[in-house]
Amino acid sequence: MPALTSLVLNGINVVGIAAGYLVFRLVFGARVDFGQPFSMLQLCVVASAASAVEGVLGGVLAPFGSGHGAIASALEWFSEEFLSFITLLPVVLSAPAFLTRGRRKWRRQGLHQTGRASLPAVALAASLVLSLLIKGGGAIAFPVIALSYCALSYRFFTTSLLVAFFTICIVELAVSGILPVYHGQGDIHDLVSLRLAAASIALAPLIIASTMAAQARALAKWRFMASSDSLTGVLNPRGFYREARAVLRVLHRGRQPVAVLMMDLDFFKQVNDTYGHGVGDGALIVAANLLRKGLRDTDISGRLGGEEFAVLLAQRSLQEAQTVAERIRASIEACVVPVEGREPIRLTVSLGVSFAARAPAELSTLMHAADRALYQAKHAGRNQVCTWQAPL
To answer: pTM for the full model?
Structure first.
């Protein structure tokens, strides 16, 4: 009989998970995106559907379970599974995105910044201690403000971990009698109420965190649009100078090497005059794509205007900077830009390189030197790389 009971209970779990998966695919498709403002409400629908299926089966098969009536067993199953889904699914589903994108965006913080970043988590721990000290029926809700603080301060994955920590702590403390908001194992309705209350409290910060993620994504999109060249996708002058100066300040403090490349398409006016501005725009896009392919993710590239581009290379030697410039020049020279009904276009570029073994305080020093090197490359016959070192 115990083996049969175990089989029935496990079967209920399997059916519930299958139902949840089907609803999940119907609602989310291939994957869930917690950067959408209503994603947590949609996940709540999935959790409710899976829990409801298990609740119905638990009620029908009550004799194999706890021995309570059908309605009580159904409520017990529903509340337990709903709390589990709300607690665990956000952690499991948001972990892959955090481990791929989140870690790449990690930046070292100073002690003061790290201390400030830990304040929401400290507030959550303090609120749980306060619940234990004061006790009473409302103690379970004391951490709500701290959880909201966490949702406003951390990414979704971190918030979901803290929410899971809160849920596990509060339910275990209540069931064990340390937090007297639950009157014992025999009172099913108190247990159901406790689980649903914990799940409701957990949902609030998760919804806030999801909304904050959506807002951050929207702001990043607008910032990208404001800083990027609409034709080529590289930074526009404003975006390039802002990011390049920010990186240069760090390199200057660390006395690290830096190089700047200036690139100009040769005889580009003739392309526009001969083929039209549409074909010229296509050529600019091709050149910008090849430029980005020759750079690292940490390098900063921008279109300064017309056919002129600039690149800041952090922590590169002069030889490395010249190698990068030559690689870009060769890739553009080898590329053919097709033109409908006419001979394809072959592009060439001239590049100027400036270098400083210790990054200067001002970007203008490097830009001026790279511009002089570019002028030298054009004066020497174009389609080549020149280096100007005298001003540095």
So the answer is: 0.67
